[in-house]
Amino acid sequence: MLGAREERLAARWLRRERDFQLVARNWRNPQDEREEIDLVGRVGETVVFVAVKARAAGALVPGYFAVDARKRRVLRRAIKAYLAGLRSRPRTFRFDIVEIVGPESGTRAGPTVLHFENVPLFSKYYRAGE
User: Fold this and answer.
1) Which of 2, 6, 3, 34 lies closest to 113, judged by CA?
2) Residue % of the chain over a pLDDT of 90
3) Span 2-116: which CATH code?
4) Residue ranges of the domains in the chain?
5) Which listed residue, of 6, 53, 66, 85, carries a Cα 20 to 30 Å from 115's Cα?
């Protein structure tokens, strides 16, 4: 699976650079298996949901914009399902996007990691208990 490598890279990078503690990888909603969250973790008391997008260097559509309106709707449903399944709801949670950009062909450089933190996904009035 091509995305698995990028997800592992993203999880390692988040752990090293952002003190991210991985809770789940490829979490799927038991009610609807099509709803998936790439990474779920914690940073302090905050639950962090992460979409990982891999892109070739020079891609026309950056990974941030690949999380389009349809994908955001799916992620909102998946996150709501995840939160509903917790014994105690977190006080805070957020949605991040991690983009893994492959190196230019012919270079020895490794991939570049771009981290977009606290990407708007829910209304500012949304509460985890709703």
Assistant:
1) 6
2) 65
3) 3.40.1350.10
4) 2-116
5) 85
